[in-house]
Design brief:
Length: about 170
């Protein structure tokens, strides 16, 4: 009925947190819709990440795997640079990378754990968005999709404060 409604033919998409779970599913779906996919993850065990890219390629799609920690500017710059070298453009960014909730009350929450959650869930999305938007402006547009959580709208309990704060801030950035 609407064959081109969900077509991503000719588009290039970066999926952060793409080695498993929601990110993996997004990467596979985008590839099925015709996008060239760059899967990325901070996971320093690249086999999981490589498997996603290989699966896409085995099904006839185009994909590459680039390990990157989105909270580290050098990794973000390298990810964008390599994507541009490989595909020449960036049409879609899916900020899916996320650090799991630290289960702790605010009174007991360690500053380092709090910073880690913010670094990945919020600052990582900011750094990625800032890096790709420059390319998107040059090419006349693009889309940035931030994957959040219901926890960004309503705290789940008194032990997930850092996670809820990071997702609420991500919602406001969107």
């Amino acid at each position: 009925m609407f064959p081109d409604l969900f077509s991503l033919q000719g588009k290039v998409a970066i999926i952060t947190g793409g080695s498993r779970g929601i990110g993996r599913a997004i990467a596979l779906a985008f590839a099925e819709a015709g996008a060239k996919v760059v899967v990325s993850s901070r996971n320093k065990r690249p086999p999981e990440l490589e498997k996603v890219a290989e699966e896409i390629c085995q099904k006839g799609g185009q994909a590459i795997a680039i390990p990157a920690h989105v909270g580290k500017i050098e990794d973000v710059e390298n990810l964008v640079k390599r994507t541009m070298q490989e595909f020449g453009r960036i049409d879609i960014l899916v900020n899916n990378a996320g650090a799991n909730p630290v289960l702790s009350t605010m009174a007991d929450l360690d500053l380092g754990a709090f910073q880690k959650v913010l670094e990945v869930n919020l600052i990582g999305a900011f750094l990625m968005s800032k890096a790709v938007v420059k390319e998107m402006i040059k090419q006349g547009g693009g889309r940035i999709i931030n994957i959040s959580s219901i926890s960004g709208l309503r705290a789940r309990n008194d032990q997930t404060g850092a996670y809820c704060i990071s997702k609420a801030a991500l919602n406001m950035m969107t």
